Amino acid sequence: CPWAVALHTALALAVGVAREDVRAIRDGGLPAAPKLAALSALARALIETRGQVSERALDAFTGAGFGNHQVLEVILAVVGSTFTNYTANVAHPAVEDRFARHAWQPAREA
Q1: Beta carbons of 24 and 31 less than 8 angstroms apart
Q2: Measured between alpha carbons, how far apart are the two ends of the chain, in Å?
Q3: How many CA atoms lie within 13 A of 77 on its CB side?
Q4: Which DSSP letter does residue 93 get?
Q5: Cβ contacts of 105 within 8 Å, gap of 6 or more
Q6: CA angle 4, 7, 13 (to 5 degrees)
Q7: Is 51 left (phi over 0), alpha (psi -120 to 50) or beta?
Q8: Is the Cβ–Cβ distance between 94 and 1 less than 8 Å?
Q9: In the chain, fewer beta carbons within 10 Å around the N or the C end?
Q10: How many other C-beta atoms are found inside a 10 Å radius of the C-beta of residue 7?
Q11: Is 35 in contact with 64 (CB distance < 8 Å)?
């Protein structure tokens, strides 16, 4: 969703996530920072598997320094993001001027 990507890009940069890591996520990759990579990988796994993540994915997350209780926090973030994305995909909100420099469009399938 173009609106959500622009918003999340602005928020990530505002809290100090490195531009290179933000770019990697926007491009479908993982950030270079190991802890952010583990967080991003778990969020992606939750989305791609509809919550049926493997023990290996959970172990990678906790192995990066996160606690088991933080898995629920990631699930909550995914739920909120999914709700926002679905809503924006239906409503097609305009990207606000303050987020316009972070505008994004999904790649078109051939």
Answers
A1: yes
A2: 19
A3: 13
A4: P
A5: 2
A6: 135
A7: left
A8: no
A9: C
A10: 19
A11: yes
Q: Residues 61, 92: contact at Cβ < 8 Å?
A: no
Reference 82, options 110, 26, 55, 43; nearest CA is 43
* 8 A C-beta contact, residue 42 and residue 53: yes
The dihedral built from the CA positions of residue 8, 16, 26 and 48, taken in this order, carries a sign that is negative
Count CB atoms within 10 A of the CB of residue 45: 20
Token look-up 């989305």 returns: 47
Q: What is the mean pLDDT of the chain?
A: 91
Q: Using CA atoms, how far apart are residues 57 and 43, in angstroms rounded to an integer?
A: 10
Question: What is the structure's pLDDT at 51?
Answer: 93
| H helix or E strand, kind and range, residue 52 | none
Q: List, for residues 24-55, the tens digit of each pLDDT value.
A: 999 889 999 899 999 999 999 999 999 999 99
Average pLDDT on 6-15 reads: 92
